[in-house]
Amino acid sequence: MKRQTPQLFIGALGVLALLLIASCNPRIDPPTQSITFEEVRELQNEFVETRAPLLEAGLGFEDTRDFWFSLDTLKNYIKYVEQEAKRQGYDNLGIRVYFAAYDEPQGNQEFPYSTVVLVPTTTIDGFSGLQKGFFPVQETIENLDSINALNYGGGGIPPNDY
User: Fold this and answer.
1) What gap in Å lies between CA 118 and CA 74, rounded to an integer?
2) CB count, 10 Å around CB of 149?
3) SS3 letters for the chain?
């Protein structure tokens, strides 16, 4: 029995060490602006039912309404924005998303005409910008035109509903 005691003790220490290592990575809570899949589906359905038909009637075709960027692209873009903003003396950073459109399809694809462009911003006078829901954007948030915007995400071939 004495031979098993050291093995049990070493095993218990190993489990304890694993628990300590696992607890070193603190849990990251979702931002206050995050929403559930159900809420996304409701918002997407509202767009499809109320806006998509008007756009399709006006354009004469069903346009792209979803866009994809890899996490690596987004992380790298955020690092780039932080680097350039720091170099230029800006802080209180954010990203504004603009809807945009090409005058013709890009590359060898029929779609998209629509696109989104991510533009770096800075806040003036300490405005936090943390709001939930739809509110007019405060005038104290300014685009940083001296830093490149991000475009060329992948556009879904319509219809590509949530």
Assistant:
1) 10
2) 17
3) CCCHHHHHHHHHHHHHHHHHHHHCCCCCCCCCCCCCHHHHHHHHHHHHHHCHHHHHHHHCCCCCCCEECCHHHHHHHHHHHHHHHHHHCCCCEEEEEEEEECCCCCCCCCCCCEEEEEEEEEECCCCCCCCCCCCCCCCCEEECCCCCCECCCEECCCCCCC
Average pLDDT over residues 96-111: 81
- Is the distance from CB of 152 to CB of 109 less than 8 angstroms? no
Both structure tokens of 148 = 């490149």
Q: How does the average pLDDT of the chain come out, rounded?
A: 83
Cα separation, 33 vs 80, in Å, equals: 23
The Cα–Cα gap between 129 and 31 comes to 13
Res 64: pLDDT: 87
Closest C-alpha among 114, 97, 85 to residue 33: 97
The vertex-68 CA angle with 110 and 61, nearest 5°, equals 30
Residue-level length of the chain: 162
Cβ of 122: how many Cβ atoms within 10 Å?
A: 19
Q: How many Å apart are CA 35 and CA 41, to the nearest integer?
A: 10
